[in-house]
Amino acid sequence: MKISCLPVSLFDDICSGRMSLQAWAETAKEIGYDGIDLSMLMLTAHTETYLQRIRRELDRAGLPVVMATTYPDFTHPDPKQRQREADYLARDIALCDQLGIRYLRVLAGQAHQEVSEEAGVTLAAEHLRQADAVAGKYTVQLLYENHAKPGAWSKVDFSYPIDIFFRIFDQLKDTGILLNFDIGNIVAQNREPLPILERVIDRVETVHISDMSAYGKFDPVEIGTGVCPIQDILKRLKGYGFQGWLCIEEASGHGLAGIASAWRYVHNLVNEL
Hints:
Layout: E1 2-6, H1 11-16, H2 21-31, E2 36-39, H3 48-61, E3 65-69, H4 79-99, E4 103-106, H5 117-135, E5 141-145, H6 162-171, E6 178-182, H7 183-187, H8 193-200, E7 204-209, H9 230-240, E8 245-249, H10 255-272
Parallel strand pairs: 1-8, 2-3, 3-4, 4-5, 5-6, 6-7, 7-8
């Protein structure tokens, strides 16, 4: 199992330009990571010259970009906005293909009060299926996540409640969409991750390793200092034969120190399996 990192603690630095993507990749390589993850928020254009420059810089750093994260809002009550979201996602898929990014994490949408659970499930599943058809034109694998709330949104994820997540997940089983399984988001709902993992393990392609301060509370902390049963999850994955990427979602707010300690913790756990 290889290890990459989505550097949530560095989002402000990277999105503002204080830290370049090349510098992030070079730093991750020095720490020991096998790859890096990016947010679409970090990419400021989709012109060919810009993307060629970004790819050259990342290639010089010598680490693959494993996963990009994006934030489609397919449960928006306005049909015109939902179409915009679909078009934005199609662009993101093409952009990932051009940058050589293997995985693109996708979401259901936000929990809009005007949209019922039944309507939201239908809308999310329909649009994700359409996005899968777009991804099929490229070398990009879409990954759906049991997600909570990104900074890019004002509301929590519509499918944050695990029962809603399962309803959408079940409607995607005949598509090419696989899963990015997030440990911390389940703990934040005061649920145990292992039983949830058992339900979806045959569709898990990557794992977001995150940690929370307590069950029932969305409060990210340094990886290995919280209550998430990370070691138990890794043992079960190994027993299943999982050989995919462990994508650390480092959101403790401790910057590079937190990102380095997260790698040491997960690296040691993997070596002990």
